[in-house]
């Protein structure tokens, strides 16, 4: 069980989040929706443990991975090294298998600057899933991709989640991404922001209604 209870988060004198509370199970995917600047990325950093300065309590598993808005790769290291430096427990064979799973094994000895943005994001996914995290936190992982590449990335993410079974918290502005990947959607609104909605994505509602 993952429990989030952020009673108050401030930056200086500005209060960003107040009384943000929810629970989720391992294997569940939640999408967090809201306007730009509302505090979604701030909340993710708290949940991932990157920012420990807040009032409240978060219960989370030890094995956590995060996919940022930008791929955050080491430009002076090869694709393979970007994976093995984060996961030194992986042998070369396992690391190459992880790259093959996301479709960039042929780029193993390239540097990030030689990759397209889509390929860089595939590497970021490989790095996140290689450690088989119990909790995966994703902050707009498909931003700036063209629609075709974004669809490919969503499908790849969907398959990797099914294979590894982590809890996933996804921040997105895309209803399509939320409806494709999430079981629940949480909406952040207000100033300071709080959760004003906890609902099933539209695709799940349509499926349920169709089943009836």
CATH architecture of the largest domain: 3-Layer(aba) Sandwich
Count of strand segments? 9
| Tally of individual helices | 7
Q: What is the first-to-last residue Cα distance?
A: 31 Å
CATH class of the largest domain: Alpha Beta
Query: Biggest sheet: strands, sense, closure?
Result: 6 strands, mixed
Global Rg: 18 Å
Strand order of the largest sheet: 5-6-7-3-8-9
CATH evolutionary superfamily of the largest domain: P-loop containing nucleotide triphosphate hydrolases
- pLDDT average, as an integer? 90
State the shape: globular
Structure description:
The chain is α/β, with parallel strands linked by helices and 212 residues long. It has two domains: 2-63 and 134-211, P-loop containing nucleotide triphosphate hydrolases (Rossmann fold), CATH 3.40.50.300; 73-131. 35% of the residues lie in helices and 27% in strands. The protein is built from seven helices and nine strands; from the N terminus they run E-E-E-H-E-E-H-H-H-E-H-E-H-E-E-H. The strands form two sheets. Strands 5-6-7-3-8-9 form a six-stranded mixed β-sheet, sandwiched between helices. Helix 3 (92-101) packs across helix 4 and helix 4 runs parallel beside helix 5. It is globular and about 45 Å long. Mean pLDDT is 90; it is low at 204-212.
Short descriptors:
single chain, 212 residues, alpha/beta, Rossmann fold, 2 domains, six-stranded mixed beta sheet, three-stranded antiparallel beta sheet, 7 helices, 9 strands, 35% helix, disordered C terminus
């Amino acid at each position: 069980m993952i429990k989030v209870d952020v009673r108050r988060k401030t930056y200086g004198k500005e209060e960003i989040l107040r009384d943000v509370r929810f629970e989720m199970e391992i294997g569940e995917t939640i999408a967090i929706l809201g306007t730009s600047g509302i505090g979604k990325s701030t909340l993710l950093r708290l949940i991932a443990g990157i920012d420990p300065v807040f009032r409240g309590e978060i219960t989370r598993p030890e094995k956590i991975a995060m996919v940022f808005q930008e791929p955050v790769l080491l430009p002076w290291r090869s694709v393979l090294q970007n994976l093995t430096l984060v996961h030194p427990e992986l042998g070369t064979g396992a690391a190459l298998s992880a790259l093959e799973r996301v479709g960039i094994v042929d780029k193993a000895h390239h540097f990030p600057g030689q990759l397209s943005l889509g390929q860089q994001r595939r590497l970021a996914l490989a790095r996140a899933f290689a450690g088989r995290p119990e909790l995966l936190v994703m902050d707009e992982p498909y931003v700036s991709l063209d629609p075709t590449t974004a669809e490919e990335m969503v499908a790849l993410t969907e398959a990797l989640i099914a294979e590894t079974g982590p809890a996933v918290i996804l921040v997105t502005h895309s209803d399509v991404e939320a409806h494709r990947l999430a079981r629940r959607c949480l909406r952040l609104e207000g100033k300071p922001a709080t959760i004003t909605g906890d609902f099933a994505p539209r695709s799940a509602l349509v499926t349920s209604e169709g089943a009836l």
